[in-house]
């Protein structure tokens, strides 16, 4: 009951979205209410998507009062909204403590995908990323992660569309906010929750090795992406300080465990940085590493320009050469279609701009 007890510890109430259905069932039981009330609350939150306790009209007033004494709805104020020519919409939301987070809705031919933030800032320190420039402020609660999808769905409700997939690739390292991420997943995939297919959800990690093992053991159908970005220890440590905590060999071993345990493929994200990690020899070396994964898939990402960093883009022809080398070595590789580049949609760029103006 740690979530439910949060109010006693730091003076704030937990959010209604902080609880999985099982946790609601527990809360309902502890409060002497009939078990079916948990399902009713869940239905109001995720199917009807209401925004106040008063709207829960099939609950007795006494229960609604109790709920409002113990829980809050997540406050997410839209500070800025940027719409790209390609249909991508990026939101900057302010939370109740004035911290800002980013959420992106991307339009694909197969539906709408939402990219969620899991932390305010990030302590991982990847050298090509704007999200980490001012370090980690705090973890988001499960409810604050869930609220981003509910809000996106509420916006799509206006046009009768739905959120069909989710990528946990926004600001933050989800595997450093693991328990909140797992509660988030439970609510997303529950048939009585947002009912999003597990295979339509992808979580991306920079390589927090112990939690790759943990995630493998959860035996979910949720996709795993590893931000690899380099083919060896030396270069990866330069680009991603997390590699000094969890060296390359340990990461690869954890990935092999994941594949053996789940039978699922891993997507390896590789951000191409001009003259840094995008040479043919890097592609050859990467292919050698990934050959041991029969179903490995590499997603090549032309790096987004971050004002505070020095990286430049890889020329188009070199991107294709890199891809060809991987494929010649039987490693499947695609080049990520860029979305929202005209609206600074790369992770953390809007928040960084917002903070320059003195905000948190
Ligand atoms: S890429 Fe992800 S893990 Fe790395 S600093 Fe940025 S938000 Fe953190």
Describe this structure in words.
By secondary structure, this protein is of the alpha/beta class. The chain folds into three domains: 65 residues, Orthogonal Bundle (DNA polymerase, domain 1), CATH 1.10.150; 110 residues, TIM Barrel (Alpha-Beta Barrel), CATH 3.20.20.70; 111 residues, Aldolase class I (TIM Barrel). It is 37% helix and 19% strand. It is built from 13 helices and twelve strands. The strands form two sheets. A ten-stranded mixed β-sheet has the order 1-2-3-4-7-8-9-10-11-12, sandwiched between helices. Strand 10, helix 11 and strand 11 form a beta-alpha-beta unit. Helix 5 runs parallel beside helix 6 and helix 11 packs parallel to helix 12. The protein is globular and about 70 Å long. The model has no long low-confidence stretch (mean pLDDT 91). The structure holds iron/sulfur cluster (SF4).
């Amino acid at each position: 009951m740690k979530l439910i007890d949060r109010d006693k510890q730091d003076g704030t109430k937990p959010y209604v979205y902080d609880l999985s259905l099982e946790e609601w069932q527990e809360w309902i039981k502890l409060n002497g209410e009939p078990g079916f009330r948990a399902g009713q609350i869940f239905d109001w939150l995720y199917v009807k998507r209401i925004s106040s306790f008063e709207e829960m009209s099939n609950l007795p007033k006494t229960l609604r009062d109790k709920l409002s004494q113990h829980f809050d709805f997540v406050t997410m104020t839209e500070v800025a909204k940027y719409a790209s020519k390609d249909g991508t919409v990026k939101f900057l939301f302010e939370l109740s403590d004035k911290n800002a987070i980013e959420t992106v809705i991307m339009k694909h031919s197969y539906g709408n995908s939402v990219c969620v933030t899991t932390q305010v800032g990030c302590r991982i320190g990847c050298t090509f990323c704007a999200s980490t420039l001012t370090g980690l402020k705090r973890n988001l609660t499960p409810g604050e992660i869930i609220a981003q999808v509910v809000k996106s769905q509420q916006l799509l409700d206006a046009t009768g569309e739905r959120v069909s997939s989710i990528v946990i690739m926004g600001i933050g390292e989800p595997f450093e906010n693991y328990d909140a991420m797992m509660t988030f997943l439970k609510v997303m995939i529950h048939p009585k929750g947002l009912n999003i297919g597990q295979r339509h959800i992808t979580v991306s990690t920079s390589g927090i090795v112990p939690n790759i093992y943990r995630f493998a053991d959860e035996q979910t159908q949720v996709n795993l992406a590893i931000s690899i970005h380099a083919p060896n220890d030396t270069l990866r440590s330069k680009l991603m300080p997390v590699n000094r905590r969890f060296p390359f060999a340990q990461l690869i071993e954890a990935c092999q465990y994941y594949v053996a345990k789940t039978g699922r493929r891993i997507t390896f994200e590789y951000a191409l940085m001009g003259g840094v990690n995008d040479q043919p020899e890097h592609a050859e070396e990467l292919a050698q590493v990934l050959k041991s994964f029969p179903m490995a898939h590499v997603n090549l990402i032309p790096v987004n320009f971050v004002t505070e960093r020095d990286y430049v883009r890889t020329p188009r022809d070199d991107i294709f050469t890199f891809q060809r080398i991987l494929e010649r070595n039987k490693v499947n590789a695609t080049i990520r279609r860029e979305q929202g580049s005209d609206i600074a949609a790369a992770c953390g760029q809007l928040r960084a701009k917002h903070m320059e103006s003195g905000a948190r």
